[in-house]
Amino acid sequence: MHPSKPALPSLRSSLIASAALALCATSALASSHREAPFITAAPKVDATDFYMFNSYEGVASDGSGGKSANVTLIANYLPLQDAYGGPNYFSLDPNALYEIHVDNNGDAVEDVTIQFRFKNTLKASGAGITLPIGPTGAKKNVSIPLRQAGGITGVAGDPLSFAETYEMFIVRGDRRTGTRHQISIASGSPTGESGTTFTKPIDYIGEKTLGDAAAYDTYANKYIYNVTIPGCSSPGRVFVGQRKEAFSVNLGRIFDLVNAPASVITNEANAKALNGSNDANEFGELSDKNVTSLAVEMPASCLTASGADKVIGGWTTASLRQARLLNGKPSSGLQTSEKVGGAWTQVSRLGMPLVNEVVIGLKDKDKFNASKPKDDASNFADYVTHPTLPALIQVLFPTAVAPTNFPRKDLMTAFLTGLPTVNRPAHITDLTGVDTTRTGPLAEMLRLNTALPPTQIGAQNPLGVAGGDTAGFPNGRRLGDDVVDVSLRVAMGALCTLTGSADALKVGCMPSDAPVGGLGFNDAVRADPTHFKGAFPYLNTPLPGAKNL
Description:
This protein is α+β, with helices and mostly antiparallel strands and about 550 residues long. Helix content is about 15%, strand content about 20%.
């Protein structure tokens, strides 16, 4: 049972803090799409967004019941997918290791890790689907160039050239040296399968192959598995597959030096100014894109520590083998042009939204992707204490004066410790006192208080805690949370405005430090939380590569 929600004032302060750092550099937001030089060359391992929230499927108005005892974690990869991107579409990398990490004791080191390994297997012992070509008596069986040779419904005889499958593991302790157990399919899964090999549904090639959106849903939902997780008291669920992009952002205008009048981007009344008719453009330029999602739901008790503190921190990473040897004469098969070996080497990292995209300097973006939270203070502190985004906004809009408090302890609180009374681990102290007396690490990750009840989907406020909804960002992140608008406001000093002249929120600043801290900064697009699904995996059906004429 979740306790009642805390009073709004203390939480409101908290959201604004966390959002602040998440956006500490949001004049170019896309949570984490193509955010670092190296990762642009490896899109299959490019983490785009990470969501973590107390599950709200079937909950009552007070947040109880339904799936409220569970946590949903979603890691999105392979950004900016055009639905028509055949003939290969968007399989994940079998030579990569995809992971979701959880720190449950506030030491900035993973305590629980969920691992995914993928495998692509050609049909007919490596031949794929072949067709007999030529005259009678002289026919040759020739491999077709497409993923499919007919309609697909999710039955054993589907004409697919290759199957994409995956295995899952849970690791307790260090991700490489901890105790590792395999996750298996539990009874009651729609496909009736058992064992440890999961199937990823094929991407939404188009309506001729897979039917309309309802038909594709029926097909893809067969691969929402119940799972047995060693060490957990009750089953979890998993879905891996293509989904419609869920991140709402006015991407082009932001990257084009915030190409909008100041009167638009500083007024909450304009938060949906560019949503378009019937909210057709509520995701901005990402409205016509798909993404690949790794979604897991598991009991909160399986993620939290045994004590009273139920705050967890989460992030996702992808790793490749350290060595790659290119084969100039590849054999027939899938991905035979390279041989890989050596230790796993992390190349992508994502916790809080927007951090590497718009907080970390260009020269350190690859370094951040390879780093671990425990090393953030020594590697990246300057980007938080002396952020560049507010200064850039002031250059572009001279009347939007950047905050003047340095170091930006308000952003350090949001970005590196979590927010008091909301999602800060119990043993971590605030940053307003003498530095030598504080305790706890300074580390970036998405933090969630699993003891706070979820909010029903119809009552969710896209501004999260700042809008009076304590179950939203920065207390975790749900699909409908407008992290761009919240982060812009925090970067420009909203937390300093809220804390008052006596610094009631203990964030190390006051209203006079933030001349525009009370303005409603926004990017003119905002998704409606009710436009997402109300049940796991919550993400929307992907867009089809082609519609029937």
